[in-house]
Amino acid sequence: MYFIDMRFLDNVSRRDFVKISGTAAISTILLSKFPELFEPITLDAKDDSREYTSTPADKKIYSTCGMCPVHCNIVARVRNDRLVKIDPDKRSPHNMGSLCARGQAGVSMLYDPDRLKNPLKRVGERGEGRFISISWEEALDEIAERLKVYVDDGHPEHLAIYAKPSPLFGLLSRFAKAYGTPNLFMHASVCPGTYIVVTRWTLGAPGFLSMNPDFENSKYILIMGRNYAEGIQIYRTKRLMEAKSRGAKIVVVDPRLSNLAASADVWIPIKPGTDAALLLAIMREIMYNDRYDYEFLSKYTNAPVLIRLDTGLPIRAGEVKGLSGEDFVTWSVDTDAPQALSSSVNPQLEGEFEIELHDGSRVKCKTAFTLLKERVARYTPQYTANICGVSSDIISDVAYEFSVTRPALVDDGWKWVNWSNGSITLRSVYVLNMLIGNIDKPGGLLYTRRMKTGSLPSPSKSFPTINIKPVDRSSDRPIAAPMPHRLFHNAILEGKPYPVKALITHYVGALTNLPYFSKTVKAMKKLDLVVVIDIYPSDTAMYADYVLPESTYLEKEGLVVVGACGEPHVSVMQPVVKPLYDTKPGSYIVKELAKRLGLGEYFDFTPHEVYNNILSPVGITYDQLKKNGFYHITPEKKYMEIPYNKNPPLKLPSGRLEFYCTKFAEISGSIGMDPLDVALPNYIPPKNTPVAEDEFYLLNGKSAIHTFATTQNNPLLFSIFPENELWLNNIRASRLGIRDGDKVIIESLATGEKTLAIARVTPSIHPDAVFTYYGFGKISHYYSKAYNKGFSTTELLGVHEDPISGGVGLNESIVKVYKG
Amino acid sequence: MMVYHVPWGIEVAIFLWFAAMAGMGEVIIALIDKHDIKKSVLKHYSGFILIFSILALIFILSDLPLFIGALPRIISAFLEGRFNLASWMSIGMILLSLEILIASIDVIKYRRLSKWISLIASKESFRIISIVIGGLVTLYSGFLLSVSSIPIWTISPLPILWIFSGALAAIALLDILLWLSGEENPIYFTLRLKFSFGIIVGIIIFMALHISASSRSMSAKESAHMLLYGDLGALFWIGFSLLGLILPTIVDGIQIFSGKSVKEMSLVSSLLYILGALMLRILIIYAGVPYWKFMVI
Amino acid sequence: MVRYGFVIDLTRCISCYSCVAACTIENLDPSLWDDSDKRRIRLRGGEDGVYPPRIEIGEYPNVMRIVLPMPCFHCENPPCVKVCPVGATYKRDDGVVIVEQEKCIGCGYCIVACPYGSRFRNHTTGTVDKCNLCIHRIEAGEEPACVETCVGGALHLVDFDNPNDKYIREAFRRRAFKVECELGTQPAVYYIPSR
Q: A168 with A226, same domain?
C-alpha cells in the first residue's frame, strides 16, 4: 500500500489505479521502499576507539547505503562496535563496486556530534530554535493528543504529511490512509514531477527513473537536463564513462560547464530554457532527410494517427463514417480509406486527408507525423542558433551526426521541473527517440525492469473513506504531480481550497527545497502543530514544535527495492552499529504514533512478516537476503520487449507509444493552451527572460559532494565543499565591474529578496545565466559547521508553474546581480 | 593578505634569524677576541649567542611537545645507524649542537667560570674552529631551504644573503651592547661595518629578487611578484626595505659622514637592522610558492 | 618482484572526490576529517582541494577544465626520502614510499622537500603523514580505498614490473604523461590525458 502518492499518475480515475495495484508492479513504482524494524535497541554510544584503519579482521556486514535515494550496496567494516569504514560491495551489479564521496562519508555522518540526540520540544518562538529535551513517551503522547483533535473534529484532512520517498514512505502513506487524510505529499513539483507525468503519458512507464538509457551500446549520447557527474547514480555514471572509453561520442547540453560537460566530447552551452528548440532542429534534420524509423513509428507509436485540424484532437473511429468505437483512426495505404488504429495495417505516416463524418460533413485531418514535420520545418540551424545562442555550425553538426549515427540516444534528463516548459521539452526528447525507433533497443532508451514484489500485509480493519481531494488538486492542473508548494503557499497560508493546520515532515526540508522561502516561513509559523522527523537539527526543525531524532541508515534494519538500477534488484539494510544516542527508527515513530491514535490495527505486523511478504513474489526469504546483502535478477530479455512483445506497464490512451500525446491534448483546454502546442514536441519560450545588463537566470543544481540540503554539515563533506558561490560569466562580470571573489548582492525579481554571495567569475557559464549549488546558507545555528555558510537559493526563487506537470520552474527566476 | 600555503611558517623564519645571529655572532666573537673590547660586553654578547643557538635548535624542530619526544627517536636513529648524514636537517642538528657547545665554552670563558676551559678557549685553534662552525651554521640555514620544493627558497644568492644579513644583525647587536656598556668612545668600529654590510645586503637582495623574477620557474616568478608588487609588497617595501634597511643605513651614513656618533641614532639603527633581518626572513618564507602550485602538465 | 604505481585515466575522472573521501575515512583519524588540508590524496584543480574544481583554460564557449587526482607519486627517485634526518621515510622494495610513524621526529623537512605537496603534518600524532598506497589493504588482497571506490573508473593500481598489465599498455598507447619528469623524480603515477 504505497499508492497514495500515485494519485497524480492516474488522477482522473481511481479505477485504473486499483487495476495496476493488482499486478503488484505498482509497488515498485517508488524508487525504493522498505519497512524498517520496529523494535529498536537503544544503547548509549561509547565511542573512544582511536583505531581507524581497516584490517582484514574487521567484521564485515552487508548493507545498503542511505546517503541518497540511489541506495548502493555497501560492506560496512566494524571493529569493537565501531564502524571503521564503508566499502562498496564489489559483487553488486547495481553500484558496480563503487561508492561516491557521500556514500564514503556515511561514517562521518554517523559520528557527527551535531546529530539530533533526543526528542526536542519547542520552548521559544517558532524559528528561534529554542528547545528542551523530552522523553520519547512524552513527545509521542503529546503529539498524539494534539493529532487526535482533528480526527475528533471530523477533519483529519487538516493534517498534512510532507516526506521524500524514503524507506519510510510506505508506512507514512499507510499512516495517512489510516488517519484519514489525503494530504500526503512528496517533493514531486521540485524534483521528479515532470519526469513522472511525462513518462507516464508518453511511454506508459511508471515512476522514477523508469526509462534507462542503454549507454553500453550507444555510439552517440546526447545528454540534457541531467548531470551524471554531479547528480551521481553510479549505475549510470559508470556506464557512461565506460561508453566514453569505448569511443562513444558524448554531447552535453548545459548552460554551465558542469563536471559532466567538462569530461564530455562536446559542450553545447545553450541558452537556458531553450533545449526544446535544439531537439526540434535535430528532428528537422531527421524528418526532412528521411532518416526516421518508418516501421517503428507506424507500428508502435501513434504517429500515423489522424488529427482533426479544426479541433487539434485526434479523430475517433466513432466520428468517421463506416467506423465505430472510441478507437483512433489512421489512413490505410492499401485501401486508401480510414481504418481503426487497433486493426491498422500499413498506415499512411504522412499526408493530409479529408474524412467523411457520420453526418456527412467532411473534415480535414493530418497525421500526427505530418503535423510535427510542418512544425519543425522552420527550425533550421540558423533559426535555432538564434534561439539557443549557439553557433549554427554546432547545431547543424550535432543534428547531422545524431541523425546518421546509429545507435544514437538522447538521455531523458531529470530536472525538467526547473522550467515551466519542461514537460514539453521532455516530450520532445521522447519523440526524438521514437523518431529513430530508439525505444527498448540496444543503445536506446530501455524500460527499466522492475522487481515484482509483494506489499504490506493488509490490515484487519478497512481504511476510512476519504472523500476530500488533496489540497493541491485543482481543475487548472488536472494531471499534475503532487505540488507541495501549493500545500504551503495556498493551503496553509491562505486556507485555499481548505486549511491545513498540522504538518509532519520526514527527510525533507520545506524551507530548503521549496521556492519562495518567505512565504514558506510564514506558512510554517501559521501552523498549529509541526512535527519534524530528522537526523540533524535542520532548518525546518527550527520551526518545529516537536523534533524527533531518527536513527541513520547505519543503525536500523530494512529492505530496499532498488529502482535506480535498470534491472530488478533488492537489497537489505542491516544495523551495523547499535543506535547512537536516544534515536529511534522512523518506523518506530510512525507505529507508536498510530498506536496512540488508536490506529494500531493498521500496523499489526512484525518486521519479518513484512519482509517475507514483500519478498514472496521474488522467491527468496529475508534470511537468505540478509546473508547475501542483495538479490539481483538479470532479465532474460534486456531488449526488444516493450512495446514489441508487451504493452507498456501503464495503459496509454492510444494503446501505443504516444508520439502525439493524447492526454495532454485532452487537458489542454483546462490549462488554457492549444492542443497541438502541448501534444506535439514544441518550443515554448520561457515566460521570463533577463533583459537588463545586470539581469540573469538564476540556475541551481546538484554537486557531487552533497545530497540535496542534507549533508552540508557532515564533517568530511563539509571539508570538501563548505560553501557555494555564484558562477558568473567573465565577460558579463567585467561589464558589471565584478571580479573573482568579490562580494555581490543577488536581488530576485521573483520574490524581491536580496542575498549576499561570493562571485566566481568564470568562462564556463552562459552569459545569460548565473549558477549556484543549492542547499547552503543554513539558518539552523545547531549546525556547528554549515551554519550561515554560503547562501540559500530558496529565498530568491519564485514559483513558475508548469501547467502540465505542476513543476515549479526553479531555474526560471530572474535575478539582478550587482557589486555588494 | 593572501599568501600561498607553505608547509613551513613563522617558526622557521625565527629559526633562520636566531641561527644567523648565533652563527655570525660566534664568528665575530672569535674575530674581535684579541681586540681591545670591554670584557663585560663580550660576557653579555656570548650569553646572547648561546641563547640564540639553543633557540635555533628548538625552533627548527618546531613542534615543541614532539621535540622532547623526538630526542629518543634521534638517539635511536644514531644507535641503529639510520642517522642520515646526507640530510641538511641532520647536519644542522650536529652543527647547532656544536655551536651550542662552543657558545657555552665562550660563556664559561668570559664569565670566568672555569679556568681549564678558559685555557682551551684562548687557543688559536679554538678561534678557528669557532669561525668555521659559526660560518657553517649560518650557511647551513641557507642550504636547509635549498633542498625544498619552493623555488624562491632555492635561488643561489640566498645562503650568501643569510651570511651577510646575519652578520649585519650580529654586528648591530654588538653595537647595541657597546653603547649600553656606557663607554664614552663616540665612534665604534661597528658603525662602519654596519653601514657597509647594510649596502651589501641591499645589493644581494636586488640580485636575489632579480634572479627569482627572471627565473624559468613560475613559482619563483610569482614569489618575486608577491614581494615586489603583490600582497607582500607593502610589508616588503615599508616593513623591510625602508625601515629595516634604508632608514638605518641613512642614519649610519649621516653619522659616518658627519664624523659624529649619537647614541640614540646608533641604537635605533641597530635595532632596525636586527628587526629588519627578522622581517626579511619572514618575508622570504611567506613569499614561498610551492612548486606544485604552478605545475605544468 | 612488484613495483606498484597508479595509472590515472583523466578521460574518466568526473571530479567527484570519492577517492578523497574514501582515503580520508580509511586512513585518517576522525579528528582530521573536517580539515581539508590534511589529505593523503587530493584533487588538484580546486583551491586547496576544495570543490568545485576551478582551473579552466580557454574562453567561453571553448573551455576546458583540468583536474588531477594526486595521490603520492611514489617516485623512483624520491626527494623526500633523501632529506629525512633519521631514516623514518623510505622506499620499500615494492615501490611504496612510506613513513614509519614510530621513527618520525616530525621535523617536517620531507614536507618541504616534496615537489608535489603529497605530505602533511598529522596533528594528532605530530608526525608526517602521506599516502602509503593502502598497503594494509593490498596485503589483505584488496585494492587501495581510492581505487576501489572510484566512480568514473579513472584510478588503477598497476604493477610496473608486469609488462602485460592492461592499464600500463593502455597508458603507453594513449601517450600517458608523468608530472614534470625533468625534476628527476620519476613518479610512478601515469596520467592518461583527457584529450
A: no
Locate all alpha helices (DSSP H) within A24-132, ordered by sequence: 101-104, 106-110
Contact B194, B252 (CB under 8 A): yes
- Yes or no, beta carbons of C87 and B77 under 8 Å apart: yes
* Residue A62 β-bridge partners: A75
d(CA A619, CA A614): 10
What domain range is C122 assigned to?
4-192
CA-to-CA dists, residue C40 to A186, A347, A557, A769, C70, angstroms: 40, 65, 34, 36, 9
**B77·C66 Cβ contact <8 A:** no
Residue B4 in domain: no
Cα A274 to chain centroid, rounded: 21
Split into its structural domains, chain A has a count of 3
DSSP label of A191: T
Contact A553, A583 (CB under 8 A): no
Yes or no, beta carbons of C25 and A104 under 8 Å apart:
yes
Element (H, E) at A677: helix A675-679
| Predicted ipTM beyond 0.90 | yes
Decide: A100 and A91 in contact? Cβ < 8 Å: no
What is the least distance, in Å, from the CA of C184 to any CA of chain A? 31
Neighbours of chain C (3+ CB pairs under 8 A): A, B
pLDDT along chain A (820 residues), means of 10: 28 33 34 34 35 72 92 93 93 93 95 94 91 95 95 94 87 93 93 94 91 94 94 93 94 95 94 96 96 94 94 93 90 92 90 91 95 96 95 95 94 93 95 95 92 86 92 92 94 93 92 93 95 94 95 92 85 92 92 94 88 89 92 90 91 94 94 94 93 94 92 95 94 95 95 95 95 94 94 94 93 94
Interface residue of C36, C64, C81, C83 to substitute, partner B, most B CBs within 10 Å? C83
Residue A39 burial (10 A CB sphere; 0-12, 13-18, 19+): exposed
CA A259 from chain center: how many Å? Answer: 21
Listed residue (A802, A780, A693, A778) closest to A131, CA to CA: A780
Q: Are residues A466 and A436 in the same domain?
A: no
Tell me how far apart the alpha carbons of residues B64 and B33 are, in angstroms, rounded to a whole number.
Answer: 35
Domain count, chain B: 1
Q: Which of A427, A447, A467 is the last residue of a domain?
A: A447
Asked if residue A8 belongs to a domain, the reply is: yes
Q: Cβ of B87 and C85 within 8 Å?
A: yes
Q: Residue B87 is nearest to which of C83, C121, C177, comparing CB atoms?
A: C83
Decide if A439 touches C, using CB distance below 8 A.
no
Within a domain: A764: yes
How is chain A split among helix, strand and coil, in percent rounded to 5?
Answer: 30, 20, 50
